[in-house]
């Protein structure tokens, strides 16, 4: 079976981890600081603050801006639940807007109508490796006096023009094992705001600037040096990993038939955390791929506002037609960099044969001028 993901860990990571273990310093220390510096340089920001997970990075970003009870944060229902859960953790309320059918990210045209006097921030999700429409969203946030937090947990190295994900407002990244680069488990925030970075560092470690002197109520959101060591081994490989993902995606774009392949905005560098197609009879399609030796996954089958914890809070009755449609059609196929050319050919054959068997899916909308759909 060709798996949907296959984490890449080599000799470099193992040697760096052993060096940390031999040092006797395992918690947040020198390796974490080194990793923060290298990741900030990679993304192009002045500061990076490492955390224990992508979820705690999201939570910490909101806390850093002082968002809490009575506030609202605009985000999307087509995402992993952590995006919206992080808002609930602060006592604030997530307000959902629908996504663009073509690129699966927040539709800027819907944001203005969702803003109320309680709105404090906009939190777009850069999904599957394609940045959200950060230029348009940054303009709205600046004009309306709102904070901007990019959930970039799937877009390591992605860019709009020459500007990378994580450079608008605060960027939040995850290093879960299946991401484009990993630390085993971990996250990081990126920002050019030095005061905000310092506040997030304080919150990250029990409100301490001086050991055992606590200035505020904080949290234990620290990254370990072991995790940072893995990240230091991965960071130099990210460009090559992303290039291989893009090469595989280009071949899929050219050779897949009977499915709707990903829409990529003309000014975007997509890094294909997932290669997600739209298909007919999605569940049957996934089962047919499995029978042909190809793994797949659904990201995501249930929109956030219809998940049990949100229904219990009064959500679930809203209408987000694009999200509702896509949750029934999307299917991600293997695109990880360890795929061999023969495995890529197997995936292509399996998808094409399955689409011929179950029926082709044709896009319902035309691409925007200046953009292309393979």
Structural summary, described in words:
This protein is α/β, with parallel strands linked by helices. It has two domains: 11-235, Aspartate Aminotransferase, domain 2; 238-358, Aspartate Aminotransferase, domain 1, CATH 3.90.1150.10. Helix content is 37%, strand content 14%. It has 13 helices and 14 strands. It has helices spanning 11-23, 30-43, 54-64, 82-89, 111-114, 134-144, 194-204, 225-235, 238-255, 282-291, 308-311, 321-326, 341-358, and strands spanning 47-51, 72-75, 93-96, 119-122, 147-151, 159-160, 163-164, 170-174, 187-191, 208-210, 213-214, 268-269, 275-278, 330-333. A seven-stranded mixed beta sheet has the order 1-9-8-5-4-2-3, with helices on both faces. Helix 2 runs parallel beside helix 8, helix 3 crosses helix 7 and helix 10 (282-291) packs across helix 13. The longest helix is centred in the middle third of the chain and has 18 residues, at 238-255. The model is unreliable at 369-374 (pLDDT under 50).
List the helices and strands and how they pair.
Elements: H1 11-23, H2 30-43, E1 47-51, H3 54-64, E2 72-75, H4 82-89, E3 93-96, H5 111-114, E4 119-122, H6 134-144, E5 147-151, E6 159-160, E7 163-164, E8 170-174, E9 187-191, H7 194-204, E10 208-210, E11 213-214, H8 225-235, H9 238-255, E12 268-269, E13 275-278, H10 282-291, H11 308-311, H12 321-326, E14 330-333, H13 341-358
Helix pairs in contact: 1-8, 2-8, 3-4, 3-7, 10-13
